[in-house]
């Protein structure tokens, strides 16, 4: 059952006010990974709850306790749980999204202030969180607004679960989901028939897709310390073991330039692709130009399409992210840093789990560090992790999303596995025992986590229609069932 025309017309006619809603959300710098900005994540949560309440959703904020970040204790931002509709004749869809964002500073290389939404002439809506994940959350709010304004009944019962820590390991949320699930019919998620998450991206900038897999994550911090304080390299260079030299040497042993993971046992865990699977990659609407356009440079590791796709979807990868404590400013400071911490992470695929990967990494780093015969000390911490996830893409919820995509975009979606991670996806699937669908709104070149992150206006508006139409298609299933 397609969405009523008056719904889609409303969305088109209110595009400007929907962009204003997104601008308000982007203006709150809700960066979960930076202590000084933690209060903004709380402000964002309250703003979101206010919007939901205005649109008729009953909500509660759930305190997720405290956690330690960079040696300091912080209150975790609340989960915002919402509920609208309780009809026994309708299916119940649980919507998940995250209201926190990645860090962003103009000095990182943004052309404009990251927390001021800018509409480019080409229809790009530029700002931190525009595509990840404030745009999609606003999409759900827009759907609610249209129904309220038009006096239309929602075709399904809706439950919402919005968190403010996804970009920092989703701390606290797993426990909440598990405890609510354990309460059965008295829990917040009672009666949920399926979960829908809009928090990833099309493969390219043309073809909508439905996503049935995510990679997991194991995130590490390796610290090398030696001198009691930073030292003058003219006085101490050549006389002491330098932490930065040791750290760089050890980190250089993790991964090759072409992405080959050097930690023994990690790549070996993954079975090779079958012939059918390889054929599937060939059929996807994707080219090497797509990845190079999105990356902004001709730097793909291979000219073989299937190989590049598998690099994102079905193989683990190891990325080096940064070095804390190193000199990084302008100028030419001649310092030997006393303690430096390298950050790196491994994206995991089935059957890998963080629990299996961590000891392999720990053992290997110790082995490589031991070979240096240095007098410095090394520690390895695991900052956060999550398991990979795969779903049944033949499930009725995927069928509903396929019909919705055809109705809105006039074409069938591609079926993809995402290279990123959304740690709670598997928790929802396992704890609630229902199918989880990933229904992305943005394009592969949106620059999530990067500078000049954007969401195209057409993806925002058509994406809002897609989310609403998906609910109608699920609603049609319940009426026929
Ligand atoms: C895919 C999703 N939009 C996303 O960006 N997830 C993050 C999750 C994360 C984990 N640690 C830090 N962020 C990602 O895949 O990096
Ligand atoms: Zn993200
Ligand atoms: Zn996200």
Describe this entry's structure for a reader.
This protein has 481 residues and is α+β, with helices and mostly antiparallel strands. The chain folds into 2 domains: 5-215 and 388-480, Aminopeptidase (3-Layer(aba) Sandwich), CATH 3.40.630.10; 216-270 and 315-386, Alpha-Beta Plaits (2-Layer Sandwich). The protein is 36% helix and 22% strand. It contains 14 helices and 20 strands. It has helices at 5-13, 15-26, 38-54, 130-150, 173-182, 233-236, 243-251, 275-283, 288-295, 305-313, 354-370, 396-409, 424-432, 457-480, and strands spanning 58-62, 66-69, 72-75, 79-84, 92-98, 118-119, 124-126, 157-163, 194-197, 209-214, 216-225, 231-232, 317-324, 335-336, 339-348, 377-386, 389-390, 414-418, 435-438, 454-456. The strands form 6 sheets. It has a 6-stranded mixed beta sheet, sandwiched between helices. It has a 4-stranded antiparallel beta sheet with strand order 13-15-11-16. Strand 2 and strand 3 (72-75) form a beta hairpin. The chain starts with a helix and ends with a helix. Bound molecules: ligand L7UNP4BN and zinc ion (ZN) (2 copies). One zinc ion is lined by residues 98, 132-133, 166, 199. Mn(2+) 1 binds at residues 132, 167, 449. Keywords: Hydrolase, Manganese, Metal-binding, Metalloprotease, Protease. GO terms for molecular function: metal ion binding; metallodipeptidase activity. The record marks 232 as: Important for catalytic activity.
